[in-house]
């Protein structure tokens, strides 16, 4: 999903360990679109997804956390917040955030809350169906979006700015699979994740 996955050092190590332990298994990457993050896992087109928490959806199992990162606000370069050192969640009450297509509310709250800590509603802006559409909507100034810190490294568009949200909880990414499709290979992949955590002492992987 975007920069999460092959671009993550810890996740690359997990894949390498899994492939070394299972040389007869072919691992294929599929791109997941953040505006509809559960579509491919629900349809059975992917066996294991890397998705952000919380994951309280029925029929899905959340496994080991593979990455943890701070949350930033992605805004247009001309946005009033673009020049700030940081903002707080309460500042979102003066913004319109991008809307996804099919995102459980608890997952959407991780990046784009519906209300500020003081209870002010956070307006919804344009609906997007792909990550590219989200980037374009923000760059055009029509909306803002919560993102993880690695997005700022991989999408340094001159029309975008990234502002730390100082009171936003960090985002956790975890392996997720369909509970009914549980199988030994999925558990082998999850074990690779926990073993990499133990070997590196990386607190973001558990």
Automatic annotation (TrEMBL):
<keyword id="KW-0804">Transcription</keyword>
<protein>
    <submittedName>
        <fullName>DNA-binding transcriptional LysR family regulator</fullName>
    </submittedName>
</protein>
<keyword id="KW-0238">DNA-binding</keyword>
<dbReference type="GO" id="GO:0003677">
    <property type="term" value="F:DNA binding"/>
</dbReference>
<dbReference type="Pfam" id="PF03466">
    <property type="entry name" value="LysR_substrate"/>
</dbReference>
<dbReference type="InterPro" id="IPR005119">
    <property type="entry name" value="LysR_subst-bd"/>
</dbReference>
<keyword id="KW-0805">Transcription regulation</keyword>
<comment type="similarity">
    <text>Belongs to the LysR transcriptional regulatory family.</text>
</comment>
<feature type="domain" description="LysR substrate-binding">
    <location>
        <begin position="13"/>
        <end position="194"/>
    </location>
</feature>
């Amino acid at each position: 999903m975007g920069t999460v996955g092959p671009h993550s050092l810890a996740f690359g190590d997990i894949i390498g360990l899994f492939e070394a332990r299972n040389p007869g298994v072919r691992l294929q990457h599929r791109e997941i679109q953040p505006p509809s993050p559960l579509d491919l896992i629900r349809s059975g087109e992917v066996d294991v997804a890397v998705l952000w928490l919380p994951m309280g959806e029925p029929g899905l199992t959340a496994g080991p956390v593979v990455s943890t990162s701070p949350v930033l606000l992605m805004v247009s370069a001309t946005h009033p917040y673009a020049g700030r050192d940081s903002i707080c969640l309460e500042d979102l009450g003066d913004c319109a955030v991008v809307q996804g297509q099919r995102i459980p509310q608890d997952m959407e709250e991780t990046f784009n809350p519906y209300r500020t800590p003081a209870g002010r509603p956070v307006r919804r802006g344009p609906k997007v169906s792909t990550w590219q559409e989200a980037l374009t909507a923000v760059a055009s100034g029509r909306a803002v979006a919560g993102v993880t810190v690695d997005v700022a490294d991989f999408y340094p568009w001159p029309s975008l700015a990234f502002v730390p949200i100082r009171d936003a909880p960090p985002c956790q990414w975890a392996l997720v699979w369909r509970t009914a499709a549980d199988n030994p290979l999925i558990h082998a992949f999850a074990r690779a994740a926990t073993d990499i955590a133990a070997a590196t002492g990386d607190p973001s992987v558990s």
